[in-house]
Design a protein that fits this description.
By secondary structure, the protein is α+β, with helices and mostly antiparallel strands. Among the domains are: 11-92, Phosphatidylinositol 3-kinase Catalytic Subunit, Chain A, domain 1 (Ubiquitin-like (UB roll), Roll), CATH 3.10.20; 371-478, Pleckstrin-homology domain (PH domain)/Phosphotyrosine-binding domain (PTB) (PH-domain like); 569-674, Roll (PH-domain like). The chain contains 18 helices and 24 strands. The strands form 4 sheets. The chain has a 7-stranded antiparallel sheet, with helices on one face. A 7-stranded antiparallel sheet has the order 21-20-19-18-24-23-22. A 5-stranded mixed sheet has the order 2-1-5-3-4, with helices on one face. A hairpin with a 3-residue loop joins strand 23 and strand 24 (630-636). Helix 5 packs parallel to helix 8 (286-301) and helix 10 (343-356) runs antiparallel to helix 16 (549-561). The longest helix is centred in the middle third of the chain and has 20 residues, at 309-328. Mean pLDDT is 81; it is low at 149-162, 171-186, 201-209, 330-341, 356-367 and 501-512. This is FERM1 protein. GO terms for molecular function: integrin binding. It comes from Leptocoma aspasia. Its main location: other.
Length: 678
C-alpha cells in the first residue's frame, strides 16, 4: 500500500522507455514523479530502477511527440512542459551513422545525435582530419535524386561491407574531445606536400584514433573506380529544375540530427556546402584538398556544372594521367607553379615554396598610381532579328567602368557609352584552339540585364581585360593587390587549354592502358569514339604532365572555380508579384534570378549591397533589402526557405573569417546569422 503522504494529488505516473541492448531486462518503467522534479533527478530515479551496472553518462531523454531532447538537466518537468502523456525515451546521444564522402567512399562512425548539426559536422571533420569544417554540412538525398538509382539497382540497397570504412572507435566517436594538435598553427606538417600521403614522422599523431595511415590514404588519395555503368546509375541533372533537387536536402545546422528525422545507421552525404575554400595548405590539408577535388570531379562527370569540350578534356587529362596514375604509384615529379593569392592559388604558391625551398619576394607597387587599360577591342551587340553586329572601338577601362570611343584620337572627348561593371555578371567565352577570346558582360539595368560582348585579339589582352572585369564586378579596381594574381590565374588556365597535336602521343592511343569513358561526362562519351577520346585526352595531357599529385588536384580545383557556373546552388522560387516560377542561384557573393525556361540571368543582387534580410515564417517568405531602396521577396518551392536563409547567413559568416583568428570559430555568430527566429 502507498500512503497518502507519498502518493498525493501532486504526483503522477510517467512511462519511460530505456533504449538498451540487455536481453531479458525490462525496457519500460512506470515512475511516480512530480512537476518540480528536475530532469537530472528523473535520470537518477530511472537508473536506480533499471538496476544495470553500466556507464549511463551518454544517455539523455528524447521526447518522441515533441521531437526534442531534454538536455537541460536542471530544468524541472513543469518547465520542460512534460506531462503524464509524454513519451520519453532514455537513449544514447552518440549513435552510428554512415556518411558518404565526396570521393564516394562510405565511412561508418559514431556521431552526436543531440548536438546541433553545425557542432556534429565539426566533430566529424576532426575525426576525418578535415580543417575548416564550417565549409561542409550534411545532405539528405531527396527522393527525386534516388528514383533512377532504385530502378537500376533494387537488390544492392547498401554498399558492400568491405567498402565501408569503420571509424567507430575514434576518440571523437566515443564522445571524447578531439586531439587539439589537429588545429594547431604551430604543428609540424602531417602530410607530404607533394604526394599528399601522411608524413612518416608524424604518423604517431594518428595512433590515438582509428584514422591510421591506411585509412588516411583512403581519404587523402584518389582511387578512381568510375565506369560508364556506374555513371549511368547515378542521378544526372538535365535542367535547372533538376539541379535544384540536388540542394533540397541540406540539414538545418541549428537543429540536431534526431530532430530532423535521422535515425541510427542512416546514410547521409557529407559535402562542401559553401564554395569558399579558406586557408588551403598542402602540408595539413591533403584529405580536404582530395575531397574538394573529388566533389569537383563528380560534379563535372555528372554534369551538375556545365563546361566546354575543351575544358572537359583538360579535366580528363588531369584525372586520367595525373591523379589516377600518381595516386596508384609512389612516383612524384618536381614542379613549379605561379604565385597567386586566392585560396587555391595560395595553396599552389605554398606548394611551390615547399618544392623550391625558398621564399617568394613581393614587389610593392606604387599605390598612388591609378591603373587603367586602353586598347582596341571588338564590341559585339546581339540583335534580336539580325546577325550580330561586330565593330572595333577604342576601349578605356578605369576604376570599375569601361568607356568606348570611335577611335584612339577621340578618347579625349565624350565616350559613345560608359558601362559601370559593379554588380555585373562576367562570363568567359573562350575557345583557345579557335583563337576566340570573348568576355560576356551582363550589366544590371532597371528592367533586367544588358548584354555586352567584348572580343579580344590574344591571350594576354584577354587575361588583362578579363581580370579587370572580374574585379570591377566585385567593386574593386586594378589597383587592388589581387589584380596581377588574377591575370596570372587566367593565363595559367589558358595555357592548360593551349595544347598542340602531338603525333607521337596521338598516333598510338591503343598502346595506352586507359578507359576514357571513366574521365568524361556521358554527353562526350556519346559524341566521340573511345580512340578519339583517348587521343584528345593525350593531347591535352602534354601541358599538365610535369605536375605533382597535389598540384594536379589544386589545378583541377582552380579550373573548376574558373567555370561560369561554379559555386551556384539553385532553388526554384516564386518572386512576390510574379506569376511564374524562377530559379534563384545562390553564390558566395551574390544572388542571381534566372529564367527557368532559357537559363538566362535576369537580375543580380550582391551581398555587399545588402542591408538586411529576414524570413516571415508564417508564409515562409524570404525578404531582402538592398541599397538604393531595392527590395525583393520570394517563397521557395523546391526546398524549405530556411535552407536559403541559412545559405545567405552562412556565406556572410564565412566572409568574416581571418587567418589571424587561428582556427577558432564563433559558433554563436553563425547561429545568429543562420538560425532565424522561427
Amino acid at each position: 500500500m502507498v500512503s497518502s503522504t507519498e502518493y498525493g494529488s501532486h504526483t503522477w505516473e510517467l512511462l519511460l522507455t530505456v533504449d538498451h541492448q540487455h536481453e531479458g531486462v525490462e525496457k519500460e518503467f512506470l515512475l511516480q514523479v512530480t512537476g518540480d522534479l528536475h530532469v537530472g533527478g528523473l535520470m537518477l530515479k530511472l537508473v536506480e530502477q533499471i538496476k544495470i551496472a553500466q556507464d549511463w553518462s551518454d544517455y539523455a531523454f528524447w521526447w518522441e511527440q515533441k521531437k526534442c531532447w531534454l538536455l537541460k538537466t536542471h530544468w524541472t518537468l513543469d518547465k520542460c512542459g512534460v506531462q503524464a502523456d509524454a513519451k520519453l525515451i532514455f537513449t544514447t546521444q552518440h549513435k552510428m551513422l554512415r556518411l558518404r564522402l565526396p570521393n564516394m567512399k562510405t565511412v561508418r562512425l559514431k556521431v552526436s545525435f543531440s548536438s546541433m548539426v553545425f557542432r556534429a559536422v565539426s566533430d566529424i571533420c576532426k575525426m576525418l582530419n578535415i580543417r575548416r569544417s564550417e565549409e561542409l554540412s550534411l545532405l539528405k538525398q531527396s527522393e527525386g535524386t534516388l528514383k533512377k538509382k532504385k530502378k537500376k539497382d533494387k537488390n544492392s540497397k547498401e554498399p558492400a561491407t568491405e567498402d565501408i570504412l569503420n571509424l567507430c572507435n575514434s576518440p571523437v566517436s566515443s564522445g571524447l574531445p578531439a586531439n587539439p594538435g589537429l588545429y594547431s598553427k604551430t604543428m609540424t606538417p602531417v602530410y607530404d606536400p607533394i604526394s599528399g600521403s601522411p608524413a612518416s614522422s608524424t604518423i604517431t599523431w594518428f595512433s590515438d584514433g582509428s584514422l591510421t595511415e591506411q585509412n588516411c590514404s583512403i581519404l587523402a588519395l584518389s582511387h578512381p573506380t568510375c565506369s560508364p555503368e556506374m555513371l549511368a546509375e547515378m542521378y544526372q541533372p538535365r535542367t535547372l529544375a533538376d539541379k535544384a533537387k540536388l540542394n533540397a536536402g541540406w540539414l538545418d545546422s541549428s537543429r540536431s540530427l534526431m530532430e530532423q528525422g535521422v535515425v541510427e545507421e542512416d546514410q547521409l552525404l557529407l559535402r562542401f556546402k559553401y564554395y569558399t575554400f579558406f586557408d588551403l595548405n598542402p602540408k595539413y590539408d591533403a584529405v580536404r584538398i582530395n575531397q574538394i577535388y573529388e566533389q569537383a570531379r563528380w560534379a563535372i562527370l555528372l554534369e551538375e556544372i556545365d563546361c566546354t569540350e575543351e575544358e572537359m578534356l583538360i579535366f580528363a587529362a588531369l584525372q586520367a594521367y595525373h591523379v589516377s596514375k600518381l595516386s596508384l604509384s609512389s612516383e612524384t615529379q618536381d614542379s613549379t607553379c605561379e604565385s597567386e593569392v586566392d585560396e587555391v592559388e595560395a595553396a599552389l604558391s605554398n606548394l611551390e615554396v615547399t618544392l623550391e625551398g625558398g621564399n617568394k619576394s613581393n614587389i610593392l607597387e606604387d599605390i598612388t598610381d591609378i591603373p587603367k587599360l586602353a586598347d582596341n577591342l571588338k564590341l559585339v551587340r546581339p540583335k534580336k532579328l539580325a546577325l550580330k553586329a561586330i565593330k572595333t572601338y577604342w576601349f578605356v577601362f578605369r576604376d570599375t567602368s569601361i568607356s568606348y570611343f570611335k577611335n584612339k584620337e577621340s578618347a579625349q572627348g565624350e565616350p559613345i557609352e560608359k558601362l559601370n561593371l559593379k554588380g555585373c555578371e562576367v562570363v568567359p567565352d573562350v575557345n583557345v584552339a579557335a583563337k576566340k577570346f570573348g568576355i560576356k558582360l551582363l550589366i544590371p539595368v532597371a528592367d533586367g540585364m544588358n548584354e555586352v560582348y567584348l572580343r579580344c585579339d590574344n591571350e594576354d589582352q584577354y587575361a588583362r581585360w578579363m581580370a579587370a572585369c572580374v574585379l570591377a564586378s566585385k567593386g574593386r579596381t586594378m589597383a587592388d593587390s589581387s589584380y596581377q594574381p588574377e591575370v596570372q590565374k587566367i593565363l595559367s588556365f589558358l595555357q592548360m587549354k593551349n595544347w598542340t597535336m602531338c603525333s607521337q602521343a596521338a598516333s598510338e592511343p591503343e598502346n595506352v592502358d586507359m578507359k576514357p569513358e571513366c574521365f568524361v561526362s556521358p554527353r562526350y562519351i556519346k559524341k566521340f569514339k573511345s580512340k578519339q577520346l583517348t587521343a584528345r585526352i593525350l593531347e591535352a595531357h602534354q601541358n599538365v604532365s610535369q605536375m605533382s599529385l597535389v598540384e594536379a588536384k589544386l589545378r583541377f580545383i582552380q579550373a573548376w572555380q574558373s567555370l561560369p557556373e561554379f559555386g551556384l546552388s539553385y532553388y526554384i522560387v516564386r518572386f512576390k508579384g510574379s506569376k511564374k516560377d524562377d530559379v534563384l542561384g545562390v553564390s558566395y557573393n551574390r544572388l542571381i534570378r534566372i529564367d527557368m525556361a532559357t537559363g538566362d540571368p535576369i537580375t543580380t543582387w550582391r551581398f555587399s549591397n545588402m542591408k538586411q534580410w529576414n524570413v516571415n515564417w508564417e508564409i515562409r517568405q524570404v525578404a531582402i533589402e538592398f541599397d538604393q531602396n531595392v527590395s525583393i521577396a520570394f517563397t521557395c518551392l523546391s526546398a524549405d526557405c530556411k535552407i536559403i536563409h541559412e545559405y545567405i547567413g552562412g556565406y556572410i559568416f564565412l566572409s568574416t573569417r581571418s587567418k589571424d583568428h587561428n582556427e577558432t570559430l564563433d559558433e554563436e555568430l553563425f547561429h545568429k546569422l543562420t538560425g532565424g527566429q522561427e
